[in-house]
Amino acid sequence: MATFHPFPRLAPELRICIWGFATEDRVLRVRKTWSDKQGYWSPNPVPAVTRACRESCDHCSYRKAFIIGWSPRYIWANFDCDVVQMRSGLLSEESLLENDEIRHLRIELVNEQGLDESESFYYYHVRNLRYFPKLENFNLLVSDGLCPWTDFFKETYWGACPSGNIRIVNAKTGEWIDEETCGVYQDYIDTNRGMHDDYTRVVDDEDEDEKEARMEAVKRLQIPLPRMAI
After folding, report:
1. Locate the 2EXR domain: which residues (predicted)?
2. How far, in Å, are 18, 27, 93, 171 from residue 42 at the CA level?
3. Best label site of 7, 105, 137, 146, fewest CB within 10 Å?
4. Above 50 in pLDDT, residue 1?
5. Given a cut of 60, is residue 203 above it in pLDDT?
6. pLDDT in tens, 61-81
């Protein structure tokens, strides 16, 4: 049944509850216009529940966000569910809108002209993650492969985000590594994809048993790596 016709006859309290549960699993792409009429916008379609009727719009779990001053621009967002995806440069904003509400964040290392921003993120932008007090998950989309980023986990302060919920993602393939698999992945590359035992990654106070365990972990590493939708 495409339409539930008796819905308007339900008690108002029940209808309001249903509207609140009507959410979408989505990656919310956030962009900023840098012209005289600057403001935030998104290429994502507007959530259907915000347009069903006046009641659904008033009581849904989405709200108007990313509003600058008197600008008419806004984005419908649900920060409990939405994965907010933005370019690295927006992290340099002195007061990024809604940074205190974002729970799930994905950063692209490319600017509006398509130029790589890896260096700027590595040295400058990443430090601003400490201004996201509710951050629960963080994905970094990289375009230069995963190898250059294997040491990034231990070098970086991630603010409120648990280190186990951070992933470095190959923006071309969707393959990703996390805190647990980054070292094994580096070993995999250093040993010519598990073909020999010649390590180049330095591990402090490593004995032969630990070295053997690392090699066994390399052999168990499943390639291709886990993937996510980009």
Report:
1. 4-84
2. 26, 11, 18, 20
3. 7
4. no
5. no
6. 899 999 887 778 899 999 999
Pairing of β 27-29 and β 83-87: parallel
**Residue at 228 is within a domain:** no
DSSP structural state of residue 48: G
Sign of the C-alpha dihedral computed for residues 68, 74, 75 and 76 taken in this order = positive
Q: Of 173, 180, 171, which is closest to residue 140 (Cα–Cα)?
A: 171
Q: Which domain holds residue 69?
A: 24-78
Residue type at position 147: C
H-only helix segments in the chain:
12-21, 54-59, 118-123, 152-155, 182-190, 208-220
List Cβ neighbours of 8 (8 Å cut-off, separation of 6 or more): 15
Q: How far is CA 201 from CA 60, 72, 135, 189, in A?
A: 51, 53, 31, 10
- pTM for the model stands at 0.82
- pLDDT reported for residue 207: 62
Tokens of residue 221, six digits: 């590493």
- Token pair belonging to 168: 């470095």
Q: What is the pLDDT of residue 206?
A: 57
Instruction: Specify the higher pLDDT residue, 16 or 130.
Output: 130
What domain count does the chain have?
Answer: 1
